[in-house]
Structure formats: C-alpha cells, structure tokens
Amino acid sequence: MERQWWHSSVVYQIYPRSFNDSNGDGIGDINGIREKLDYLKELGIDVIWLSPVYKSPNDDNGYDISDYCDIMDEFGTMEDMDNLLKEANERGIKILMDLVVNHTSDEHKWFIEAKKSKDNEYRDYYIWRDPVDGHEPNDLGSTFSGSAWQYDETTGQYYLHLFSKKQPDLNWENENVRSEVYKMMNFWVDKGIGGFRMDVIDLIGKVPDEMITGNGPKLHEYLQEMNKAALEGNDLLTVGETWGATPEVAKLYSNPERKELSMVFQFEHIGLDQIEGKEKWDLKELELLDLKKVLSKWQTELEGQGWNSLFWNNHDLPRIVSRWGNDKEYRVLSAKMFATLLHGMKGTPYIYQGEELGMTNVKFEDINEYNDIESLNMYKDRLSKGYTHDEIMESIYAKGRDNARTPMQWDSTENAGFTTGTPWIAVNKNYNEINAKQCLQDENSIFHHYRKLIDIRKNNDTIIYGDYSLLCPEDKNIFAYTRELNGDKILVVCNFYDKEVTFSFDGEFNHADILLSNYKDSSTLIEKLNLRPYEAIMFRIK
Ligand code: NOJ
C-alpha cells in the first residue's frame, strides 16, 4: 500500500468544552487549547481532532451547528481559530475539523427558512413527510429516545431528526445541500486544516420511508462526489464515524482505489459489553475472547485493502480504565496495558483527552448533575417504562457520555486547573491524585508510557506496516500478538486481568529485547513468561 503521512500519525481528540478554559467562564475554549499545544507536542501526537467549535445553541454540545463558518461565542472567535491553526502547524500538528453534516441545528438559517412554508426554497434541504392517520410517518426512533419525527404546527408536516429534535436531518438527495456542504468544506481546507472527522457519515444515504438509516444505497456515491469536490489533491486525513461498518463495508470507504475516506471508526468492539439486540444501557461483562476475535478480525481483514483506526475512547464513550480495566489499585498498570495493546496494532491510533492520564469514569449521585441530552432523555424514558432510579443510574455510571466529558485534570489546584470560574460540569473528585502535572513529573506515569509508545511507533515501520498474527486465541486471560515486516518481529503480550498467568511463546527465536513494559523488571524468558497483574510487554524478537 502506498505510504501516507497519516499511516504513522497519532491523533489526539480534544473536546473543547472540557479541555482548558482561558477566560474563567467555566467553559473550555480555543485559547485554552493554544495554551496547551506544548503539552501535546511533548506527548508527541501529530494531529488534533477538534470536536465541533462552530456556532451552536448547544443542544448536543456543538453537534448541532447553526453556522458552519463561524465560531461558538463561548469558544472564542475566528481569529482565535486561525491562531490555533497557525500555532499548531508551527509545531507540526495538523488539525482535523469535525464535519457534522448528517444534520444541522434547527437554528441554522436553512432550517429557519425551511420551516416557514412548504414552498420555501430551503424546504427540501430537510426531510418532511405528511402525517399518516394523524401520526408519525413511521416508527423510526431517535438515538436520543422517542420518535425520530417531530410535528411542525405551521406547515402540518413532520420533519426527520435521527438525533434530538433540535438536530433536523439534512436531505442529501438534494444536490444543493451537497454542494453547500462541499463549499463549506473547502472554506476550511483553504484555512490549512489537516482533514475531517465525519460525524455519523454512514447515515447520509438514508431512505427513511424504507426504514433504512445506515449504509443507504447512495452513501458511497455521495462520498466519492465529496472526495472530488473537496478532498482530492489536498492530502488530508479523513475519518468517518460509522457505527454500522463491517470489515467489508470499511473496505468500501477506505480502499484507496475507491477515493472515499482514509479510514473509518468501526464500533464492533465497543458493543461487546452490551446485551445483544438491546441498547447500550443494557449491560453485560466483556469476554476477552470476543475482544480478541473482533479486533483481530479487523486487523487481518483490512490488510492491504483499507486502513484501521485504533481507539478505546472518545467523547461518547466511558473511560477505558474504568470500563474494562481496574480504576482502583491497578489503575496505572491497567491503563498502560490498554495503551500497549492498542498502540502495537496496525492502524492510526486515537487518544482521547485525559486517556494519557488514566482519567476515570465519574459517579454523580443526582441526575441533575448530568448534562448530556442522551442520558437525560434516557433517564426520563426508562423511568416511564418502569425502571428504578438505581437501575438507570447503574447504566449511566457504566456508559453515560458525561464520563468522558468531565473537565481535563491539569493539576491539583481548585477545579483541577481547568478553570478559575465554575466549571460547566463538575470536575471528577479524584483530580488530586490524577492530573497532568503529576504525570509529567513522574517518569513512570501513564503519560510517559503513551509518549514512549508514540515514539516507538515513529521509529518502527514494523508497527506501522507489519503483518498481524494473534497468538494463543483460546487463552481467556492473555491478549498476545506479533507484528512482522521483512524479518523484523515485534511481540506484544498483555495480561488482561489482575491474576498472575503464564504465557509461552512457541515460535523460533534467539533472544527477546524489551521495547517497553509497564513493570520495571519484566522477564525476557518468553518461552515461559510469568505475567503479573495487567503486565504488558512489547518485545523485539530475533
Ligand atoms: C456522533 C457524535 O460523536 C455524538 O457526540 C453526537 O451526539 C452525534 N453524532 C450526533 O451528532
């Protein structure tokens, strides 16, 4: 496969509202990000994925955009944004903008016009249907609970919103919608961005009358058109958020010959701790064997025909160390284990803010302390269906999106150094123990483990391009694999739990050197290796 700059890059996701507040209003902002660019440089990342900073009434924290070419007041100005781009570029860091074009805000000028009358020139920018027998056109549901159809009194029709009712879906069948989107993308490309993360991009080909939402028939046609109109020739990283992607579908998006996207986020591993066929709130324990199977399938099936993204976390997901690791006595060890496991794989790794500190989930007692529309709507919905408060809170503690959205923990001063004002959402109480200042000072911290992994990746083509093979597929405690390129071999061995286990390598080798371990005194006797709790070692074997 032809080399691309983003094959060897590591991306860091910033959720601006929670990253760093420069002006004391309790809300993170663009100038706050500028203050932390040197911190990111020290970590060694190459790219920032910036969650939305555009004008927005914040029904879904910026994923409801009212003007794609302007900046949210709380976050700063376009001048601040231009400065951020310039200062990031000076440090060799590219910025990916979040492209949210499945829907706009209901406060976007297109929608304000569209809802005025049935013959308004913007009417067809959105998806309107007549009532059927006085009801919603069909049973399509919103991700944020309830029907996906909202009745509009003025014109007597329903409009579609797959997310909140303040996020009306755009009608991609309309050529004008598509060309407006491409024009807007070019506005940002011309500013010198490094690419786009594309929000729920697999929904743009929807056929709501046939109940088709993801992977609609014209999805790839639109993406190829988008590529020609806004991406081609600009050497960008593009990553699509595609909840419904299988490896077959991911190859359609990311096979370079098809000229669509660089890669997609697949979510198959993310669904492994929910009861099949139910919602994300319906919890079950993760089985390591399932995780090994799924991640290994993605590693091998995209080989030569597409490119993987690698992630545990983002702003919609609980913190990995709390989710599948141990956020108590083994917090540091298990966070490093997850880092090693992921960063040894083939693909482009994404780090979500605070993951490099081992930040944990949060448990607010009162539902009113939560901010996220998804959790709040689900709370009401499930209460009305007879679930108890405690049952619902268990789900929110495990899966609620606010787990990822508590403020970044910079130091042990008030509000974790995030703001001098009152933070928009409470800071996790553990900031005295878990914060960036402490991590930077401690050579053995999770931060420095990530930094070393990024450095190892940059200096080892085997990690970027080597073939992947899963070892001991039936072992219920150990996740181990090799990567191999032109005779160079890297072995990654991880104990996934807190019990001691033994690993045996039965391939040929003369000796093994440790590239990185989360224990100071790991053994190199890989033919019979005793692994302590969460021990994770990356070897070069010869
Ligand atoms: C996916 C985003 O990651 C999420 O935060 C948002 O709520 C939905 N798309 C709707 O834009």
TrEMBL record:
<dbReference type="InterPro" id="IPR056300">
    <property type="entry name" value="SusG-like_C"/>
</dbReference>
<keyword id="KW-0378">Hydrolase</keyword>
<protein>
    <submittedName>
        <fullName>Alpha-glucosidase</fullName>
    </submittedName>
</protein>
<feature type="domain" description="Glycosyl hydrolase family 13 catalytic">
    <location>
        <begin position="13"/>
        <end position="405"/>
    </location>
</feature>
<dbReference type="Pfam" id="PF00128">
    <property type="entry name" value="Alpha-amylase"/>
</dbReference>
<keyword id="KW-0326">Glycosidase</keyword>
<dbReference type="InterPro" id="IPR017853">
    <property type="entry name" value="GH"/>
</dbReference>
<comment type="similarity">
    <text>Belongs to the glycosyl hydrolase 13 family.</text>
</comment>
<dbReference type="InterPro" id="IPR045857">
    <property type="entry name" value="O16G_dom_2"/>
</dbReference>
<dbReference type="InterPro" id="IPR006047">
    <property type="entry name" value="GH13_cat_dom"/>
</dbReference>
<dbReference type="InterPro" id="IPR013780">
    <property type="entry name" value="Glyco_hydro_b"/>
</dbReference>
<dbReference type="Pfam" id="PF23915">
    <property type="entry name" value="SusG_C"/>
</dbReference>
